[in-house]
Please model this.
Amino acid sequence: MAAFEHVEECMGTVFVFQGRSELSKKVLSEILLAACGKLHEADRIFSLYKPESPLSQLARGETSVANCPPAVETVWELCEQWEKQTGGYFSAFALNRTFDPSGLVKTWAAKQAIEVMLKAGVTDFSLNSGGDIWLSDELSEANDWLVGISLPVTIASPEAGVLTVVNLKESEFRAVATSGTAERGEHIWNPQAASMAKSEIVQVTVLAKDLVTADVWATAAFAEGPNALNRISKVNGVEALFVFDDGRVDGTEGFAEVLRGSI
Model:
């Protein structure tokens, strides 16, 4: 088994594939190219920074969902489902009522890239999607199961570092996603308040079985604020860790169990 690492820039962030495979370098490169093709396809369709993208055209009223690539309707419907599941705290409609599914599309595309890898027989790997982590069921090295959670400060800060580390090997969880303001500032809106999300919460990290679920709940929890702790505690297969602006940390009992098992 040879180790591999592939770094792909897309969607204004970096995707890092790391793992081990018995396949030849040529075959593995072709598989990675196909996987990354899913990322770039999503970027071409959903980027609101590309004036020619179908989503930009939709935002300007120049087209309809029906005339967009089928992926737009698929993501639209997914966003509607997640809005209901999160009590309305996840919404793909920005404050200006533009359809902006950026809170889901990155990990939705990453999930498609993962499926390409798995179907091609690459099963011992992880994917870091701009800080949101997915682990395969067949990781062969003990350290690969360890996921660090950063302090809620930008990585450019001298105070940057690791808040804690979770070991997911003996857990049901395979995905870790974090939402906060450390790197991108205020960018998450609270759909219920029709304003940018503001509370004493500075960071939320969510554990889930899949990447999209972790990503959506991290976004929704940050938007809702401290009350999200009670909401998430009632959701099966999802656990969360909240960091407050005064340094306090709180979380679900399930997250605490994972931390205890990581020691």
